Amino acid sequence: MPALATVFAGAVTAQTADFADTASQEAEGTILVVLAHPDDELVIAPAIAAAARKGARVSVLYATSGDAGPGVSDFEPGEALGRARRAEAECAGKALGARIRFLDDIADGTLTDRPRAHGSPAERFADQFSAVLRAARPDTVITWGPDGGYGHGDHRMVSALVTQHLQSLSADTRPALLYPALVNAPLPPQLAAQGWSLTSPDLAPVSHRYEDTDLTAAGKAAQCHATQFDEATRAMIAPGFHGAAWKGEVRFRKGL
Questions:
Q1: CATH of the domain at 44
Q2: pLDDT in tens, 50-86
Q3: pLDDT tens, position by position, 120-157
Q4: Structural domain harbouring 62
Q5: Measuring CA to CA, how many Å separate 160 from each of 153, 157, 189, 246?
Q6: Helix (H) / strand (E) containing 19
Q7: Does the N-terminal peptide bond of residue 115 adopt cis geometry, omega within 30 degrees of 0?
Q8: Strands across the sheet with 57-62, in order?
């Protein structure tokens, strides 16, 4: 999620908001979060932490290791960077209370490459995701919405492939599908400039409220991603989103 690198150059004053009109989803069962790259989880980090704290079994599945995105590090794109970012994902998972998993043999930035071709990265994603889903049998799947957050091609493709598979399942075997939603408008200039998409509040009825301990966990998860963000940015990601977007709860729209 490299677009976060300049989002919070200045501090955003933390504040709370009353969302009494929205539904609040209590954590239970098994949650599978499916994302494109390590650090994508930061957009919903306090919701992950809150769910794990309440007893849910939470796994975060990444399509790629992020091996093409050196961020602020001195790494060149490639295997060494991928190993470093895998380690950062494990660090973040530990902070949030989530199990971390990766799909195999899918390079960062390739999911949109000839997706209908036999053996394409998209086809490999679909095959592996199907196997993970059968084994995990989650109650809820969370993935990027069709906007990909800020239009990232890998994010959009992960959303499409996950949704395509889940919509093929019968009602008795299909988990709930949720997309993260930024509902607080207008977005601060730092977010708006990065192209982050807004969702109308009426389309985002599901909310995961979080406590201070969950926000602290989100901050610790952000600190793990040292290849992607400088120290000042890592320190501001969680409080910045808390003050500008989450405001006490992470909102979701229903995918299916």
A1: 3.40.50.10320
A2: 999 999 999 999 999 999 999 999 999 999 999 999 9
A3: 999 999 999 999 999 999 999 999 999 999 999 999 99
A4: 2-254
A5: 11, 5, 28, 25
A6: none
A7: no
A8: 23-24, 206-209, 249-254, 176-181, 140-143, 30-35, 57-62, 99-102
Residue type, 249: E
CB-CB contact of 98 with 32 (8 Å): no
* Domains contained in the chain, number: 1
pLDDT band at residue 108, thresholds of 50, 70 and 90?
very high
Both tokens assigned to 26: 């209590």
Contacts of 181 (CB under 8 A, 6+ apart): 145, 199, 203, 204, 251, 252, 253
- pTM value is 0.89
Q: Give me 212's structure tokens.
A: 């201070």
Q: Are 28 and 138 in contact (CB under 8 A)?
A: no
The span from the CA of 33 to the CA of 58, in Å, is 7
Q: Which of 234, 235, 239 is nearest to 71 (CA)?
A: 234
